[in-house]
Amino acid sequence: MTSSIGAVPPASQGFGQQPPAPASAPGAEMGKDAFLKLLVTQLKYQDPASPADGTTFIAQLAGFTQVEKLSDLADTEQKLLSTQELLGASTMIGRTVDYTIAGSGSGNGNGSGVVTSASFASTGPTVRVGDRDVPLSSITAVRVTGT
Question: How many angstroms separate the CA atoms of 62 and 116, rounded?
């Protein structure tokens, strides 16, 4: 049985070009495991009388490595962003902030107070103002306390 997956262009054609943005829904991109399974399946069903070209196989392995390294880089960048957000929140401790109060009913409006602590919730960094945890995205102004 012969299976045609398609030709892989030489790696030299891809250098210096920006890949197009994926048009798939979030979470629908091919992960490392799916990529590796596809590669193994391609090898399993190739025609033994006409095996895949070695350069094609190497190009596919290089693509797999690139996908893996880009995934690792994205994870590292996300961790760095989280650390920077928490650092930014911690610099507000002891300062007076103005913020908008999101919610339903009589809880809507604005608030102000001194930041006493910073933490990182599942939705992002928050600062403690009085008895309220305020997300950084709700802060509208930061002042030195006493001004």
Answer: 50
